[in-house]
C-alpha cells in the first residue's frame, strides 16, 4: 500500500513477484476440479510476468493518476513503518515477511499453468488493474480522505487470515 506521500515501502529489495489474479486462480481450480488427470498433481499458479516492486509502482502510477515509487526498507524499518496502521502484530509480520520472500526470490517463478489449464493467458498486472479499478483507489489523490476507513476495512478482512509469527515485536 502506498502512503500519502506516494511511496510503497517494504523489504523486498529488487526481488520479483509473479502475482496471479484471483480470477485466474478460480479458473484453474475449476479446470482441476472438473477435469481428468489431476489426481496428485501440484501446480505452481502464477501470473504471466515477475515484476520488481519498482516496476509495480510504475504500473500503478499509470492507473492511479499520480506518481508512486518503491523505497526499500530493512525489516526493522518495515515493522516500524507499519506500526501506525493499528494492525495486529501477526498482520504486520505477514506484510513484512511477504516482502522478504520477494527479496530472496521465493515469488519470482513464472509458470504457464493458467494458460495450460484454462486455454487463455494469465492476466498481467496491468490487465488486473484495468479490470479492478477499486484495487488501487487508495493510491488515487481523491482517496486520501477515505484512507483511514479503507485501512480499517482492510484490517478486518485480513483478520480472517490469522498468521502466528514473532518476526515483528
From TrEMBL:
InterPro entries, per database record: Ergot_Alk_Oxidoreductase, NAD(P)-bd_dom_sf
Superkingdom: Bacteria
Name assigned to this protein: Uncharacterized protein
Source organism: Streptomyces sannanensis
